[in-house]
Amino acid sequence: MVHTSVPLPSMTALRVMLAIAERGSTTAAAESINLSQSAVSKQLLTLENLLGAQMFTRKPSGMVPTDLGRIYLEQAQVAIKAMEEAAFRAASLQPDSHTLRLKVLPILGDRWLLPRFSDFNQKHPDIDVQYTTFATDNPAAQPDAVFRFGRGPFANEHSVYLFGEDVRLVCAPAYLARLGSCETLEDAARGVIIEHPSTPLRWIDLVAEHGKPDLEPQGVMRFDYYTLVLRAAISGQGMALVPPQLVEEELRTGSLVNPGGLHYASKVAYWFTTPTDRKPSSALKAFQRWLMQQVE
User: Fold this and answer.
1) Distance (Å, rounded) from C-alpha 293 to C-alpha 191?
2) pLDDT digits 0-9 by tens, 39-89
3) What backbone torsions phi and psi does residue 169 show, to the nearest 5 degrees?
4) Span 137-148, mean pLDDT?
5) DSSP codes joined into one string, 138-207
6) Average pLDDT of 169-181?
7) Is the pTM of this model over 0.85?
8) pLDDT tens digit string along 223-252?
9) Which residues contact 90 (CB under 8 A, 6 or more apart)?
10) Domain with 123 in it
11) Residue 105: which of 145, 138, 78, 71 has the closest Cα?
């Protein structure tokens, strides 16, 4: 056995670090991993003291990883993925167990699934749901179902459409006030569009559907995490294109608005998929029934 004197972060610290990177703040991170805000802050401080450097810098859009933070984030994903695979494999040893393994996109889990999930827990307290956000090639660690974002239906999978074809342009009321009247695409083009470089919800899709493919916005701001795209829009830094289901609370309370009702029909959407070559467990069937009630 090889021993090392290099200080190693705990698994809790790694989860905290990933949650902060995805959510942009210690408060939001705490909500996503069921810890108090003070516990998250303490874990981050302990980690930074252990490594002797800052892991994040604070910016108007939220907490952003430093160069050191990015190094540890990359390896944290590897370590947590390995532990999740081990848990999945252990659960699979029990045939038709009450353990349900789901692969969930972080933004979907954060903004839509987890706020509703307490209802499922209350109705099915005997089902143990395990989440992962990582893909794996290990056959023994495959999830029972996967939430996908893309052009469905998907080959060799039962694919159920959830939502996402309706995409709306949203911004904070304060940003709209600064922009002035915004009833047309030309009005919106006077502003800044906030995008995620790998998420196909873009200004070019909006203007193309409305027959104005050459219309460009005044500026484009991009973030590596879609959560930060939404946070930047909520904080009044520009406009974002988003399915309304991901910002239900903000639209309801008025912290986000849909100027001019501008929207488009996206070719990509959120789907719930299960393998066609595997018999669904009773736990999966119960979850599917509950999930369909949520999107009715």
Assistant:
1) 38
2) 888 888 888 888 888 889 888 778 888 988 888 888 887 777 677 666 666
3) -85, 125
4) 76
5) -GGG--SEEEEEESSS-TTEEEEEEE-SEEEEEB-HHHHHHH----SHHHHTTSEEEE-TTSS--HHHHH
6) 96
7) no
8) 888 888 999 999 999 999 999 999 999 999
9) none
10) 94-164+269-295
11) 145
Q: CB–CB of 287/145 below 8 Å?
A: yes
User: At 72, which CATH number?
Assistant: 1.10.10.10
Considering the domain architecture, whether residues 148 and 280 belong to the same structural domain is answered as: yes
Instruction: Kindly report each contact of residues 208-214 with a partner whose C-beta sits within 8 Å and lies 24 or more positions away, as own/partner.
Output: 209/264, 209/265, 210/185, 210/264, 212/185
Q: Tell me which amino acid residue 52 is.
A: G
Rounded to whole angstroms, the Cα distance separating 57 from 59 reads 6
178/200 same-domain check: yes
Residue 3 lies in a domain: no
φ, ψ for residue 177 (rounded to 5)?
-65, -40
Q: What is the largest CA-CA distance in the chain?
A: 68
Torsion sign (Cα): 225, 103, 241, 200: positive
In the chain, the number of structural domains is 3
Whether the CB-CB separation of 169 and 127 falls below 8 Å is answered with: no
Give residue 99's identity as a one-letter amino acid code: T
Amino acid identity at 293 = Q
Q: How many CB atoms lie within 10 A of CB 30?
A: 21
In a domain, 136, yes or no: yes
